[in-house]
Amino acid sequence: MPVTNQPHAEHVPEFSEPGSTAVSWARVERVLRDSEMFWLSTVRGDGRPHVAPLPAMWLDGRLHFCTGAHEQKARNLESNPRCVLTTGSNSFREGLDVIVEGTAAQVGDEAVLTRLARMWRDKLDWPFEVADGRFRDPGSDDHRAPVFGVTPAKVLAFSKNPYSQTRYTFGE
C-alpha cells in the first residue's frame, strides 16, 4: 500500500546559510529515486550501531532494500525495526545529502516485490526472481533475501550550495 501523506517541510535556519530556502520535496524524491547506493544504519541487540552500504529503491513513498536473512542488519531489524538510510554526495561544496529515518517492515506482497525486482534489474542490472515472498538470485534455490520497506518518519535534506537544512516530517 503506497504512502500517500505528503511531508511537512521546515527550513532549519540555525543550520543553514542566511538567505537559503527549503529544499523542495520533489528534489529530495529525485535523489531518493535516482541514487543507487545508500548507507543503512541499524542497532544491534546490545545497543552497538551497525552500518552497511547497499542498494535501495524508492517506491510508493518507501525506501526498499534486501539483505540475507542471516546478515547482521536483518538480525538487528528483527529486534529493532527502527533504522536510518542515507545517500547523497561525498563532496563538501555541492550536491544534496538525504537522510531517511523510519521503521522497516518486511515486504511480502508479491505484486510489490515483482515491481521492486524489475527496478533492481532496470536500474542496477541485478536480476532477482520473486519466490515465497522474498527475492531469489536466479539459479540459486538456497539464496533467498527478505525485502524491507522503510516508512519515513523524518527526512533530512542537506543542500551544500548554498548550505541549507530542511526537515520533513510525516503526519496523518
UniProtKB/TrEMBL annotation:
Single GO MF descriptor: oxidoreductase activity, acting on the CH-CH group of donors
TM helices/strands, residue ranges: none
Gene3D superfamilies linked to this entry: Electron Transport, Fmn-binding Protein, Chain A
Domain (Pyridoxamine 5'-phosphate oxidase N-terminal) ranges: 27-126
Keyword ATP-binding on entry: no
Gene Ontology cellular component list: cytosol
Annotated keywords: Oxidoreductase
Protein name, per record: Putative stress protein (General stress protein 26)
Species the sequence originates in: Saccharomonospora marina XMU15
